[in-house]
């Protein structure tokens, strides 16, 4: 079962098998902040380090590209590691694991978002 995808600041995607608070907190390196995504990323949520900017964590280009695709260019930046999860829940409110199809879709969407982020017009 794939609980989520950790997106590191060095642009690596890592499978997160455990979706517990402790696991997600460890993956982002501290207290977590939940971001509900929409648009092309509808059905997904992003967890980030709540104190990332205060801690001067490095910019996460992949997570920032996702943010900008959803909320607009130059509206904010994401710092530190992030975790992308499905925002779909079961009857008890627990997040459902990512399916293989969702992982494939996420990788495609991330590649599209990064292409926009790295485009010469994005300075």
Describe this entry's structure for a reader.
The protein is an alpha+beta fold. Helix content is 31%, strand content 20%. It has one domain (4-118). The protein has helices at 21-28, 61-71, 100-118; strands at 4-7, 13-16, 32-36, 44-49, 82-86. It has a five-stranded antiparallel beta sheet with strand order 2-1-5-4-3. The longest helix has 19 residues, at 100-118. The model has no long low-confidence stretch (mean pLDDT 89).
End-to-end separation in angstroms reads: 39 Å
Question: What radius of gyration results from the CA coordinates?
Answer: 14 Å
- Judging from the principal axes of the Cα atoms, what is the shape? globular
Number of contiguous helices: 3
The percent range for helix content is 25-40%
Number of strands: 5
Largest sheet: 5 strands, antiparallel
Strand order of the largest sheet: 2-1-5-4-3
- For the record, the count of structural domains works out to 1
Mean pLDDT: 89
Short summary of the structure?
This protein is an alpha+beta fold and 123 residues long.
Defining traits:
globular; single chain; alpha+beta; 123 residues; five-stranded antiparallel β-sheet
């Amino acid at each position: 079962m794939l609980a989520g995808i950790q997106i590191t600041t060095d642009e690596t995607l890592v499978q997160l098998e455990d979706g517990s608070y402790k696991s997600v907190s460890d993956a982002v390196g501290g207290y977590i902040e939940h971001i509900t995504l929409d648009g092309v990323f509808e059905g997904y949520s992003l967890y980030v380090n709540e104190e990332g900017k205060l801690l001067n964590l490095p910019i996460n280009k992949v997570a920032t590209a996702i943010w900008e695709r959803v909320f607009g260019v130059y509206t904010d930046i994401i710092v530190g590691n992030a975790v992308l999860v499905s925002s779909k829940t079961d009857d008890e409110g627990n997040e459902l694991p990512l399916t293989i199809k969702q992982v494939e879709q996420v990788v495609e969407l991330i590649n599209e978002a990064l292409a926009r982020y790295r485009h010469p017009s994005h300075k």
